[in-house]
Amino acid sequence: AASVRRFEAKEMDLVYNFSADQIPRLRNAYGDSVHISPSLSTEYYAFDTRAEPYNDVRVRRALSMVIDRDFLAKVIYSGSQLPAHSMVPPGIESYGEPFGADFADMSQLDCLDVAIELMKEAGYGEGGNPLNIEIRYNTNPNHERVATAVADMWKNAFGAKVSLLNLDVASHFAYLQEDGKFNVARAGWVAEYSDAESFLALSVSGNKTFNYGKFNNPRYDALMKQSYTERDPAARSIILHEAEKILMKEQPIAPLLTQAYLWLVSDKVQGWQDNAPNQHLSKFLSVAE
């Protein structure tokens, strides 16, 4: 709060990580000086593809489609997170634009209509088999708010009975990494380096540690293996995009949110560029008098 006041008094030209609840006021006052850019992170829900009904792509797609990610980002996180429809976040220079889910540009109403039909085809929802879902998450107020909101979305769309189970972070991820059975589980990934592989490798069938839902797709595995030995950056990017296309079609994971970087940047600052690694070297910046 103090740094924002100093920015408003023109005593500071850069402010990082201000409170998200100030976004509307600051945007109204300073417009393009408010920078909200994606980080190298993705929060997602994993489906346990070993068991019914989550071994059915129609069920996974339907559940993912009715999640209102804009609501999660804007209402629950006050704009400090961005909606995610791809496993790979935007902003990775070597990768380019991520391959998002094919329903990413559909309205929520259109998504709902298609999702209800998919769920009916799979034999669940109104007039079909009951849909009982447990969402597991690591204890955190925002994770609880997200789970509660998603539970309501699934109840309203499919008449699902949804329960919530939270554990401390160590117990939650230990359970998942020890092959514990589940329905839906919250997970997240923050890359240590700016490369799409960091996110896509999580869903390789041989990844015993982080492929929580045990997704197994031979074509996906083959593409990822091919990407490891491809030395041409452009060709490698094409291979990784093909892999992400499969991942987003199959939806073994439902991307939810990408954490955002919040900056206030004075219009006097020259050379500023938002970037996913959040690196802003002073040698590339200057301040106009």
UniProtKB/TrEMBL annotation:
<dbReference type="GO" id="GO:1904680">
    <property type="term" value="F:peptide transmembrane transporter activity"/>
</dbReference>
<dbReference type="Pfam" id="PF00496">
    <property type="entry name" value="SBP_bac_5"/>
</dbReference>
<comment type="similarity">
    <text>Belongs to the bacterial solute-binding protein 5 family.</text>
</comment>
<keyword id="KW-0813">Transport</keyword>
<protein>
    <submittedName>
        <fullName>Peptide ABC transporter substrate-binding protein</fullName>
    </submittedName>
</protein>
<dbReference type="InterPro" id="IPR000914">
    <property type="entry name" value="SBP_5_dom"/>
</dbReference>
<keyword id="KW-0732">Signal</keyword>
<dbReference type="GO" id="GO:0015833">
    <property type="term" value="P:peptide transport"/>
</dbReference>
<feature type="domain" description="Solute-binding protein family 5">
    <location>
        <begin position="2"/>
        <end position="209"/>
    </location>
</feature>
<dbReference type="InterPro" id="IPR039424">
    <property type="entry name" value="SBP_5"/>
</dbReference>
<dbReference type="GO" id="GO:0030288">
    <property type="term" value="C:outer membrane-bounded periplasmic space"/>
</dbReference>
